[in-house]
Amino acid sequence: MAPRNEEEKSLSDVDVPEEKAAKQPRIDNGLSLRNQITAAPRQTRAWETFRAVGAPQFHVAPMVDQSELAFRMLCRNHGATAAYTPMIHSRLYAEGGDKLCDETFSTTVADRPLFVQFCANDPDVLVKAAKKVQATVDAMPADADGKRAGIDYVDLNLGCPQRIAKRGNYGAFLMDDLKLVSRIVKTATSTLSIPVSCKIRCFDSVEETVRYATMLVECGCSVLGVHGRTREQKDLKATRADWDKIKAVVDAVGSRVPVIANGNVRHYDDAIALMNYTGANGVMSAEGLLSDPALFGRRVRAGVASMTSVDEAMAQRTRYSEPDPSTAEPVGALWPASGTEGCDLLREYLELTREYATPMRMVRAHAHRMLGEWLKEFHDVRDKLVRCHGTPEEYRKQLLEVSDDLRACIVRTERDFPVEKLTDRALRRLEEANELEERKAEAIRQQAAEESMLASL
């Protein structure tokens, strides 16, 4: 059946020469993307825009209170080629004062390409919030080279499965009202000067998921992020992401817009396998990056960067994504930075928080994640970390001391992996439980002896 209009043609039907796309200048200022991309059918603009910002493959996923500017820059220093802001509540941002807005969003010239993610259930409120962010960025001064900060995409969160999203009627719970989703995306794409992207979760069936993705593309979505789990599958360690659903979405709309795959990316090998298996144009990671912010920079961990066939990708998928009944490792087990790398990454991150103001609650959370696995072995260092407090500078100084202490402990082990130990409290509980069991056994023995004595009378 022929396309209904020019905008519904696939890329194979319109002229988008690769050499022309490759010559597109990288967008490095705050001007609107639509002013820099020549007038063209919608899907052609989507691809030209994506190529103009470098066709990024390795994305830092949006994480509430955790994908803040300092952490995004840390990940960019170690292989990430694009990043999402933490989810911004569109109504609170649109109505908030300067202090709230400054705490909610920050960026810098080097923070590109950048997806600014909003949750919303009202088209007009989303547009108002997005324009407010754009105005903030436009007002930022240029750097010494004349470059400006900028926003490359306004992203609509259609994937948050948490209870707060259900109460607020946003995120993945908008899947129950696709007419509203359609209205939000159409309004945003027709009103904003910045391309609109969407990040979704899957329906139970492949067919519903493909219809959902197709609807978003037809409404004007320029980049589609797909998490291969359903709204109900919130426990990442218990549930494997379904790469087949992501592949079906790529097969259906991948010629029209770039697709970014999400799910089971715990290390670099997973990222390569996911792109090869699904055909996606990029991948994003959340939990994996929290444990190892250098995840995307580890190009040689298992030597799979040259993997090209679907068979090889599927084998890699089985290797890392199928549960192994012979081990206790869960499906979603993460690969933390090995040896002292976590200490080095934390030190680099703390330096970045000096340059980019970061709330201490976020710094604390990142410190625990970067050092986390080793803290399960060295409980005294963990206790010292918990006791850190004071002003931002005092807190950073204490964290650096914790990092140095842990580094010394790790070096003494002559291992690059931790061996978890029971805490003193857990040992006491275990001893108390053993004592209780012994008392119960003794009581049973005494009762049996008394019953035997009575029976002999």
Global structural class: alpha/beta
User: What is the overall pLDDT average?
Assistant: 83
Q: In terms of per-residue confidence, which ranges show pLDDT below 50 for 5 or more consecutive residues?
A: 1-39, 300-333
Number of helices: 19
- The tally of strands reads 9
The best one-word shape is globular
How many strands, which pairing sense, and closed or not: the largest β-sheet? Answer: 8 strands, parallel, barrel
Helix content: 40-55%
Please describe what this structure looks like.
The chain is an alpha/beta fold and 457 residues long. 49% of the residues lie in helices and 9% in strands. The chain contains 19 helices and nine strands. The protein has helices spanning 18-22, 33-36, 42-52, 69-77, 90-95, 98-104, 123-138, 163-168, 178-191, 206-219, 243-253, 268-278, 287-291, 310-321, 341-355, 360-375, 379-386, 392-413, 424-456; strands at 58-60, 82-84, 88-89, 114-119, 153-158, 196-202, 223-230, 259-262, 282-285. α15 (341-355) packs antiparallel against α16 (360-375) and α15 (341-355) runs antiparallel to α18 (392-413). The longest helix is centred in the last third of the chain and has 33 residues, at 424-456. The termini are far apart. Residues 1-39 and 300-333 have low confidence and may be disordered.
List keywords for this structure.
457 residues, alpha/beta, 19 helices, 49% helix, disordered N terminus
